[in-house]
Amino acid sequence: MMKNVALAALALGVMFSGACSASEVINTGGDTRCKDFVDHDEKKQDDEITKMLKDRSGTDPAALEVSATRLSVSTYCKTLGKPDSKISEAPHG
To answer: pTM of the full predicted structure?
Structure first.
């Protein structure tokens, strides 16, 4: 029994100890850091932006709002933002 628990704990440790940050594993929305956001593909960025906007307004954002906000956040992260800045800190709509 103890051996099974130890193996399960080891498997979980290996799974979570990869080179992935939290935002690569789960959608952290507006808490996503710029360093992670700029490395993600457009689909993942859209998912994070959508979650951030929905968390703020309570409704699903329009596709145009998501695209415009992604552009704004991307520009912010590549210019004024620091690697550890949250994407929610970017000026947008």
So the answer is: 0.71
